[in-house]
Amino acid sequence: MDNMNITSAQYTTDMEGNNASIKATIDGTEMSVPLDPANRHYAEILRQVEAGELTIAEAD
Amino acid sequence: MSSKARGLADLGNAFDDGALSNRNLIINGGMVIDQRNGGSAVTLTATEVYIADRWPVYETQTSVLSGQQNQGSVTPPDGFSNYMGYTSLAASTVSANNIHIFFHNIEGYNFAQAGWGTANAKPVTLSFWVRCSLTGSFGGSFVNHDQNRSYPFTYTVSAANTWEYKTITVAGDTAGTWKTNNQRGLNINWSLGTGSDYEGAEGAWVASNKFSAAEGTVDLIGTSGATWQITGVQLEVGDTATPFEHRSYGDELQRCKRFFEVTTLNDHTFSKYNSNSAYGNVSWEVEKRSAPTLTLTGDWKAYGSGQGAASVVNLYAQHEDTGSARLQIDNGSYSSYFVRQGTPTAGLILADAEL
Predict the structure, then answer these.
(1) Residue B116: HSE in the Cβ half-sphere, 13 Å Cα cutoff
(2) pLDDT-above-70 percentage for chain A
(3) Number of residue pairs across A and B with CB atoms under 8 Å?
(4) What pLDDT shows up at residue B16?
């Protein structure tokens, strides 16, 4: 389960320039995903990155 | 034994099992809360779609089902005013690797009392009302967080289009790892069409991910126009099904908001940080299970302090935690802003911390 269709992922940064969340398009909807391993969207992003199916772009 | 004596005996069993109140580990088992859709019909076009709060459907073939709170406007079972309903949109073939399930996840903190994964694992009893246009044996399962422990079960629908009450008691699993924290403590599934790769023998624990029982032979999605409805879902620790524990609407809504909440930003002030960005904070009404995923929907409008309206350029979440989120607006014109819902579609923030 949890094979979400993630078509884009890019870090956003906080005021200090640290990666703070991921702007992602999941199942056609743009979402802001926190860097919390207990969050199901972040867990799935990590799984797809690990599987070589997704790359998270650096923040602008 | 008379029905009253039977009821008192069941109550005594519930007391022996540890709870006379808060027995039901299911949230929104009466399907009364639908924050996302407000009772509107939904075609399930994504792999995982929530309609009533806490009750998603997962499907490997999308757009084969429609779902809605109180779909079809049938009379619910006595004592209930709502249910969830699904309709098969075509006669779909269920391939070996297909999964279509209606499911519920219980947070580990709430399921820890069952002691699964230990020598003291307690039995649990699932009860629910179901109504289907098809008859026969249907499947489901109990699964752990890591999906390497499963217990397939079956239930039988004897009469078409008739509410029937079902109970299933499961011996606690003394093996495997069962989460006792803010992650998925227990996953309960009702199959609407599951392929053989994900079916197991009913009534036994297996060390893999099975979402239905091989003996549960009816696939709702295999029949065009077939309907399936459910309500009054209760899971309690122990080997006895007691009457459904009705909670107040407000209580149920607050419980749902630990996992999903809708809020707005009306008249929130954003403070300018640099030439292009301003920040504002929004707090959740209920502490979330985990930091939530945020989706901003609809239209927004920003107003410069003491000045006219400014366009919202890029309103997005910059940081989220279990209690609040910091949002960023990119618009370099004014020294500070207040933000409110725009038109024609009022802006909303969806905070999703589902399991």
Answers:
(1) 31
(2) 97
(3) 75
(4) 67
The H helix count followed by the E strand count for chain A is 1, 3
Does B151 score more than 80 pLDDT? yes
The amino acid present at B346, given as its one-letter code, is A
Q: How far apart are CA B225 and CA B130, in angstroms?
A: 17
Peptide bond into A37 cis (omega under 30): no
Interface of B with A in 2-41 (CB under 8 A): none
Backbone angles phi, psi at B177, to 5 degrees: -110, 125
Residue B328 has what pLDDT?
85
* Chain B residues lying within 8 Å of A4, measured CB to CB: 47-48
Q: Is-contact B312 B301, C-beta < 8 A? A: yes
A interface toward B at CB cutoff 8 Å?
1-5, 12-15, 20-21, 23, 27-36, 38-42
Residue B249, both tokens:
């609407």
Residue-wise pLDDT for B80-90, tens only, equals: 999 999 999 99
Looking at CA atoms only, how far is residue A23 from chain B in angstroms? 8
CB contact under 8 A, B321 and A4: no
- Asked if the Cβ–Cβ distance from A21 to B317 is below 8 Å, we say yes
pLDDT value of residue B216: 86
- What is the gyration radius of the CA atoms in chain B, in angstroms? 23
Selection from B208, B218, B214, B219 nearest residue B196 by Cα: B214
Residues A1-60: tens digit of each pLDDT:
667 899 999 999 888 889 989 999 999 999 999 999 999 999 999 999 999 999 999 998
Residue type, B117: G
Taking the C-alpha atoms of residue B191 and residue B144, their distance in angstroms, rounded to an integer, is 16
Closest CA to B292 of B266, B256, B328: B256
